[in-house]
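Q: Make up one entry.
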Amino acid sequence: MPQMYPMNWISLYIYFIIILYLINILLYFNKTNMELKKFKLNFKLKKLNWKW
């Protein structure tokens, strides 16, 4: 942003939405990662139980 004049409300609003969207995506991926790890762990435990 080369111009130094204050941003108008529309651009500010757009930036805000984009930032929120990115945060949501990051949180969602983090959550799915956790779910996958849990699933894998459960799977391993079940395999162990099955062997015994």
